[in-house]
Amino acid sequence: MSYVTRRQVCGHRVTKGIWLVLLGKAIINEKNNCMKTLIVATDFSAIARNATQYAMEMARAIEASVHLLHVYQLPANYGMLDIPISMPDWEQGTEDLMDGLKKQLEQDNGGQVSVSTEVRMGDFVLELTTVCDRLQPYAVIMGCKGSTAVERVFLGTHAIQAMKHLVWPVITVPLEAKFNVIRKIGLACDLAEPEMTVPLDSIIRLVTDFKATLHVINTHNEQSYDPQLVSASGWLGAKLKDVQHKFHFIKGDTEAAILHFAQSNNMDLLIVLPRQHSFWDTLIYKSHTKQFVLKSHIPLMALHFQGETAHHGIKA
Question: Is residue 70 located within the same domain as residue 147?
């Protein structure tokens, strides 16, 4: 916390009353600076509304605020289209939708969660990145587009772009998912050079914030002893010594086995590491995996390794 003394105001001595007012303001500012923020990307669809409700419940659990963001992009030939609505009317209609959503959320949660809104025009990922850089969010939460679960999670343009390219933590919420107390967090990890791929600080903070247990899930097809796997798991276990964690070494096809394990063991959240391309790319492109994901209702969190000196999102 930042402290204000009587002699720290422009080098002049101040009275006790003024000092107390300034101290109070310093405490409020410090509290605001430390406040967690969840950015919720919305397009006002049913899927987005469900993700917004998920975010509101999570915000209540970790004492965070919610910032609703809607990004729209005009067609390249907008000026040539015969659209029976003017640009100002379009913008005003969007603002009205956001205001209505904000009022409804505040009414439903009884003022327990602070809600703010923002409407921006431009490329979705670029505008979302700009807002993240300004607000420094704990995480970004969004629903998944499409008529099927696999489309919503992996084929929705905005969701997949955000998970792959945004350096901030991104949580995608399937339509069927509801927020419950997060007690079991899965981490899909191939244990290949974990010191260069696993964002430990973010994971430890997440597990600590929710008082959860971390389940490190690794798949392998080796029948024999693998010294590299033993060494990597030992290193990661030592780094996770301050949080409850368990290792699970399961056999079978990487993607299907991990997702099946997470679902069968009632994981509340599954962390994926987009830079571990062997896991990520096969989840997107293998058709049999797509069919499996159709049955999954588990929210996914994408975390990116940023190195020890660069941290985005989930932090103290």
Answer: yes
Number of structural domains in the chain: 3
Give pLDDT tens digits for 178-232.
Answer: 998 999 999 998 888 898 889 999 999 999 999 999 999 998 766 666 788 889 9
CA 238 to chain centre: 26
Q: Which residues contact 315 (CB under 8 A, 6 or more apart)?
A: 138, 201, 202, 205
The whole domain housing 20 covers 1-34
Separation between Cα atoms, residue 206 and residue 200, nearest integer Å: 10
- How many CB atoms within 10 Å of residue 147? 7
DSSP classification of residue 78: G
SS3 state of residue 246: strand
**pTM score:** 0.78
Q: Are 177 and 51 in contact (CB under 8 A)?
A: no
Q: What's the farthest any 2 CA atoms get from each other in the chain? A: 76
